[in-house]
Write a structure and sequence with these properties.
This protein is α/β, with parallel strands linked by helices and 369 residues long. The protein folds into two domains: 8-208 and 331-342, Crotonobetainyl-coa:carnitine coa-transferase, domain 1 (Rossmann fold, 3-Layer(aba) Sandwich); 237-309, formyl-coa transferase, domain 3 (2-Layer Sandwich), CATH 3.30.1540. The protein has helices at residues 17-26, 59-65, 78-88, 102-106, 110-116, 141-147, 168-191, 201-205, 214-217, 255-264, 271-274, 282-292, 297-303, 317-321, 324-329, and strands spanning 8-11, 31-36, 49-52, 55-58, 69-72, 93-96, 121-126, 195-200, 237-241, 247-251, 311-313, 332-334, 340-342. It has a six-stranded parallel beta sheet, sandwiched between helices. It is globular and about 75 Å long.
């Protein structure tokens, strides 16, 4: 039996944080009824696209909405509202990702949903939460990262912030809301009472700075990447360019790694520099920069194979997905209908996983019960 079999979720979310949260529940057997507007979740149209059983879905939409049912409702109409009320009567979880105030205007805020299903676990996902000075401020991921301080250390060599490669606040909110909902379901088993979860992207991301922003958390100055051990100030936590203009990284600052590499390179004299504070390792960083420029990325990868050093080549996504490790772990999976999926990171020993079908828009408008 799947871990979440028997749990019914009404999912009104779109784009990334909410769908990420509910697809993780769907992958473990929960019944997710995705309530979409008549035009569908906009992610359906965000290419690139792949063929799935003779139809096309965006790869983004498929990977975040597989295994769900799709119901289209006009929540501004009385017929749509009544249909949603009927779905709520049978639900365990209700998830929405609108800006604060929208659900109340539609007639489906927590108090009203609770009056329909008293033990409901209701989760609201927003950028800045349901209350506070920023509650109604419009924002997607990068704006949240900027206001939370994270973009200040997502900078290039010139110190200027750059567009982040990962939607960290979106993903943090997806994981946080999943954890909160599962906690609430466990609590409901014990008490019979539901719960309301106010999950903000900002709130979810902020704790992720504990290891980089310690000085600021303690009331002091903000970290500067060039002098911070995890952000570019340490030689053994650093990106280096290779002879072929590709890149490699040293990704572990433990002294055993420094001793192993510098001994192999015949520069034991630089071992004490690896022990110096971040920001004071310039001579070692310069030496390693010059050293890594002498071979290609793939030549260095081969050179490091038998050496106990936290080293990795910088791969693009195509190279990463084609790595033997991904195949060995079963992380990139072809569905029966031909679509490709990233496997869930939560998997249990002795249980097989195959991608569930991707729902056609409105496919479950009838007989969804």
């Amino acid at each position: 039996m799947s871990k979440l079999e028997g749990i019914r979720v009404i999912d009104l979310t779109q784009f990334l944080p909410g769908p990420m949260m509910t697809v993780m529940m769907a992958d473990q057997g929960a019944e997710i009824i995705k309530v979409e507007p008549v035009g569908g979740d906009p992610a359906r149209e965000q290419g690139p696209f792949d063929s799935y059983g003779g139809t096309q879905h965006s790869v983004w939409f498929a990977n975040l909405n597989r295994g769900k049912k799709s119901v289209t409702l006009d929540l501004k109409s009385e017929g749509g509202k009544q249909a949603l009320r009927e779905l709520i009567e049978t639900a365990d979880v209700f998830v929405e990702g609108f800006r604060p105030g929208v659900m109340k205007r539609l007639g489906f805020d927590y108090d009203r949903v609770k009056s329909i299903k008293p033990d409901i676990v209701y989760c609201s996902i927003s950028a800045f939460g349901q209350e506070g000075a920023l509650a109604h401020h419009p924002a997607h991921d990068m704006a949240v990262q900027a206001l939370a301080g994270f973009l200040s250390v997502n900078d290039g060599p010139d110190g200027a912030p750059v567009v982040p490669g990962v939607a960290n606040s979106d993903m943090a909110a997806g994981l946080t809301s999943l954890s909160a909902v599962l906690m609430a379901l466990i609590g409901r088993e014990r008490t019979g009472e539901g719960a309301y979860v106010d999950c903000a992207m900002f709130d979810s991301l902020l704790p992720w700075c504990a290891h980089t922003a310690s000085s600021a958390i303690a009331g002091g100055p903000s970290p500067v990447s060039s002098t911070q051990r995890s952000l570019g100030g340490a030689a053994f936590y650093q990106v280096y360019q290779t002879k072929d203009a590709k890149h490699v990284v040293l990704g572990g600052r433990e002294m055993k790694f420094a001793r192993n590499l510098l001994t192999e390179l015949g520069r034991e004299d630089l071992i004490p520099v690896a022990e110096a504070p971040a920001g004071e390792q310039g001579v070692l960083i310069d030496f390693l920069r010059d050293t890594f420029r002498r071979k290609t990325r793939d030549e260095w990868t081969e050179w490091f194979e038998e050496l106990d050093v936290a080293f990795s080549p910088v791969l693009d996504f195509r190279e990463a997905l084609d790595e033997p490790h991904v195949a060995q772990r079963g992380l990139w999976v072809a569905a029966e209908d031909g679509g490709k999926h990233i496997a869930p990171s939560i998997r249990f020993a002795g249980e097989d996983w195959t991608p569930a079908p991707v729902p056609q828009l409105g496919a479950d408008n009838r007989g969804e019960d």
